[in-house]
Amino acid sequence: MDKFLRRKDSSSRTGDEEPSTSVTKNLKKVVKRKYDEDYIKYGFSWCGDETAPRPQCIICGDQLSNESMVPSKLKRHLYSGHPSCANKGKQYFKRCLEQNKKQKKFIKSAVTVSEKALEASYHVAKLIARQKKPHTVGETLIKPACREIVRLMLGPNEVKEVNKVSLSADTVKRRIHDMPSDILGTLIKKLLSAEKFALQIALREIAFSSRTTLH
Ligand SMILES: [Zn+2]
After folding, report:
1. For tag attachment on the chain, is the N or C end more exposed, with fewer CB atoms within 10 Å?
2. More confident of the two residues 8 and 201
3. Side-chain-side CA neighbours of residue 80 (13 Å)
4. Compositional bias of type Basic and acidic residues: which residue ranges (predicted)?
5. Ligand 1: distance of its center to the CA of 206 in Å?
6. How open is the CA angle 84-89-94, to the nearest 5 degrees?
7. C-alpha of residue 209 to centroid of ligand 1, in Å
């Protein structure tokens, strides 16, 4: 309620003054609250900008505004949102936080590696298609060559990353097959939101892309 009142108050004030002066006054007025290590007992960590951190609930992940970085508001979230955890204490929340961090790291690395590997696989498949090489060249030449280059230039550990890129004949074939349909899908989406005259250009583009990508 007080948040609501304060907002209303400041907006009515900015309306009365010239924009340039009100901006300076508002900047001066904004109090950036800092995170206190002690807030972990309310089940809160922080996220975002270090100069104006936002409280983040360790249990549900909710992010509150910087102005909610006060014990009363953090406590309110804990007691109303997670009453069963209200009396767990610092150690419990510290453990939860550690677990969250580990999980986040794990998920992040799993996602980025597989996404990169997938992207690399598509890029190589495109090269194979453009050069009109057999689909098997991915596993018989390109991948072994990449492994050698990476092993010598970066080291044996990095070779493991190269191994994640699937370049088997079947995969390459599938990727090449996927490409025109993907282009077609994108074009259909564009067409639905475009003007009629775009149709001719799009059809020409489809014909062109299937000529260059297929062999
Ligand atoms: Zn929460």
Report:
1. N
2. 201
3. 6
4. 1-16
5. 50
6. 105
7. 50
Q: Which two three-digit tokens encode residue 157?
A: 């550990």
How many whole angstroms from 75 Cα to the centroid of ligand 1? 10
pTM (two decimals)? 0.44
Say how many Å lie between the CA of residue 39 and the centre of ligand 1. Answer: 13
Separation in Å, CA 26 to CA 2, 5, 201: 18, 16, 52
* Least confident interval from 15-19, 90-94, 123-127, 188-192: 15-19
The token pair that represents 205 in the structure block: 């583009």
Q: Quote the tokens at residue 81.
A: 């949102």
Work out the mean pLDDT of the chain and round it to a whole number.
80
Measured N-to-C along each axis, helices 2-16 and 19-29 cross at an angle, to the nearest 10 degrees, of 150
Residues 6+ away with beta carbon under 8 Å from 215: 129, 132
Distance 30 CA to ligand 1 centre (A): 25
CA of 35 to the centre of ligand 1 (A): 17
203 pLDDT band, cuts 50/70/90, is low
Reading the block at residue 210, the tokens are 């299937």
The answer to whether 47 and 53 are in contact (CB under 8 A) is yes
Ligand 1: centre distance to CA 29 (Å): 29
